[in-house]
Amino acid sequence: GQNIDQPTEMTATEGAIVQINCTYQTSGFNGLFWYQQHAGEAPTFLSYNVLDGLEEKGRFSSFLSRSKGYSYLLLKELQMKDSASYLCAVMDSNYQLIWGAGTKLIIKP
Amino acid sequence: SQTIHQWPATLVQPVGSPLSLECTVEGTSNPNLYWYRQAAGRGLQLLFYSVGIGQISSEVPQNLSASRPQDRQFILSSKKLLLSDSGFYLCAWSVMAGDYNEQFFGPGTRLTVL
Questions:
Q1: CA of B50: which chain A residue's CA is closest?
Q2: How far is A61 from chain B (nearest CA, A)?
Q3: d(Cα B48, Cα B37) in Å, to the nearest integer?
Q4: Is the peptide bond before B8 cis (omega within 30 degrees of 0)?
Q5: Nearest by CB to A87, which of B43, B101, B108?
Q6: How far apart are CA A72 and CA A7, in angstroms?
Q7: Which of B45, B90, B100 sits opposite A31 (nearest CB)?
Q8: CB A6 within 8 A of CB A62
Q9: Cβ contacts of residue B97 below 8 Å, gap of 6+?
Q10: What does DSSP assign to residue A96?
């Protein structure tokens, strides 16, 4: 079967750094996406990785290791507005997205 | 620029009543269209996707159905709602852009079945 695992909830302090991990087992791999979802709102696209390595975009970075079936999202200089759920999704061999359950990130002052 | 509309934003329906949720996309042609459901605190569950007019693929057997009467219109329906149909329904679109297939989501419809 296909499986995406990520922690259910994490807590971090404003101004700090947090790393959200995602491991996956899918039938084929055509890229990994990270989305941000604020409570009651639709997900919005953050990043895409298809090759191994780190992709940096401002305060957010995403890393991929295809051999390990592993990715992480790194958030730096945390702000209160970063409190949200972060969804990991993998595109399988049929170009369909398989979604993780999301990690709820709580930022404390 | 592309935009995606969903309505209604919230809906409260009794068990056994029908359902019709509509999604329309502007600013793009021949998009892939998706219906997802998200239960509280859970991930996204793909319900239906469509690669063209009249072409619907169902991912999960249930009492829901989908139709795509026009290129940029996607409708989710049910003849008789169940309590388990409660959730946050999201419509999304995508087009192949280079190497990947980013999905863009509508604002969602929060459905409560009582």
A1: A96
A2: 17
A3: 10
A4: yes
A5: B43
A6: 11
A7: B100
A8: no
A9: none
A10: P
pLDDT in tens, B49-91: 998 998 998 887 678 999 999 999 999 999 999 999 999 999 9
Per-residue pLDDT 10s for chain A (109 aa) are 789 999 999 999 999 999 999 999 998 999 999 999 999 899 999 999 999 999 999 999 999 999 999 999 999 999 999 999 999 999 988 878 899 999 999 999 9
d(CA A87, CA A4): 10
B95 touches A at CB < 8 Å: no
Q: How far is CA A94 from the centre of its chain?
A: 21
Token pair of A89 as six digits: 């999704």
Q: CA-CA distance, A93 to A74, in Å (whole number)? A: 27
Where residue A42 falls (left for φ over 0; alpha for ψ -120 to 50; beta otherwise) is beta
